[in-house]
Amino acid sequence: MESRSMNVFFRIILKMGIAIICMSCFCAPVYYFTDSYYLPKFYLFVIGASFFLISLFLIETKEGIVECLSDYLSQIYIIFIIMAECECAYIVIKIFLYGRSLNGEFGTFDNSAGLALTLSIAVSMIITLLIKTNLCRMRLLLYAGGIPILSILLLTNSRTGLICLAFNVLILLWFLIHRFLNNRIFYKVFFLLTVVLLSLSVVLYVTCIKSDSTTGRKFILEQSFSMIEKHPIVGYGSNGFQSEYMLQQAKFFRENPNSIYENNADEVRYPMNEFVYIWINYGIGGLLLLVSVFLFPLILFLCKKGIMIQKSLFLLIPVLLFSFFSYPFHYQSSWLVLLLVYSPIILLISKKISISFNSRICSVFLVEILFILYLSVDIYHEYQWGMAEKLSFRGYHQEALSKYGSLHGYFHGNRFFLYSYAMAAFMSGDMQTAHRVISECGQYWNGYARELLSGDICLYMNEYEEASEHFNEAHFMCPVRFAPLEGLYKVYDLTDNDFKKDSIAKLIATKYVKVESNDVERIKETCK
């Protein structure tokens, strides 16, 4: 009787975990954190995933753990689709009140790619349910529910989202042909022609729109492979891309001053390809591990093993496609897919380990206590960082620096924290602290913004030679930007180097303006 009541309790916790996971994928931004879009989603997902996995680990079922998990799969899909519908409703209201976003709709995400990925996964779930269900009413509801999701997916202006949509349409067509047309040869030929025409249409559309973006991505991949050639086996380490890529970009433009890529280059924090990113950071071993993440479920499917994996396999398609053109593992919806695919395997292995129920309860309780403590400490420090940043922008510089100083030990390896700390110190006029912290930041990140801030700090410290080096590096990292040239103009003005000052002034006056702004106009007026 006690075991039965415990099972009921763990099933309730399991359902709570499912609901929290689905909510986390669409969680609205919380502005108490510095990363207001990512962190709330991350914390909710981790809490939901812990409830989900721990409950499965403790539930004792007669039918087996995989079958038990399979019972909840449709519930996960339906809750996720409902949350996607709510996201679409929010975006429609936002469009009605404020109008369309020029760069594509992004809803509760930090950019349109995250929304497109999550909606693409929702579309894959709808198609999976359509294939599974035999109820006519259920199919009608799924078709109706797919309309707003598809509409908003198109409004994201995501090319990868469009490719995912094409794949999902082909999967649905293949299913309909198999179910209703009895595998006739004519319909198979028709399907193949549809595949060819749809593929050509998508390729032409994707290559024609956003040509500047396509050129920029090509350039980023070229420079990324140049980095890989130097360290293909071991990579550059966990922050390898952030610490080395922009230096590689600066080197390219220093050696190729009139490159066709000059006007498209900007600060790059990600190569827009998960495989390339992992290869640069962790070498060939990391790349093979990521490939196996996608390949292993497919092998099990082809071997006709793993019922749960077979049911969740379609969900891997959007994650795989976005891995070639974006950074899907930045978003919780991708981790939800991996959780659904791999949790049966992990749990089957854990169930084979002979541990008594009481021992499992004790071990889970201990792990959960440690997990809650760690998460609470992390949330507290992230909140304090957000408060320090707000104090700095409001002009309470001493209070802000005091908070940053107390948090430095916890975030000492976090490049975003170090940059934020250096900026706060610079705004307060504490140049010594700003210089020390921005130099420490250089161990983890070398980017345009860091070089520009370093140049400004050195300029105020009268370290003109070092300031000139930083501004020059920033200029070659992003040749299209005007701010580094303004910094160089100030250095040459303060050092009475009229020849170089005049040459910079002429360069600013004749420089191509990619995006008109008040800052550009101000720089042009100032540096005459």
UniProtKB/TrEMBL annotation:
InterPro entries: O-antigen_ligase-rel_domated (IPR007016), TPR-like_helical_dom_sf (IPR011990), WaaL-like (IPR051533). Keywords: Ligase, Membrane, Transmembrane, Transmembrane helix. The chain crosses the membrane at residues 12-32, 38-60, 72-93, 113-131, 138-154, 160-177, 189-207, 276-301, 313-329, 335-350, 357-377. The keyword tRNA-binding does not apply. It is a multi-pass membrane protein. Residues 149-291 form the O-antigen ligase-related domain. Its main location: membrane. Pfam families: Wzy_C. GO terms for molecular function: ligase activity. One of its GO terms (cellular component) is membrane. It is found in: Membrane. It comes from the Bacteria. This is O-antigen ligase like membrane protein. It comes from Prevotella communis.
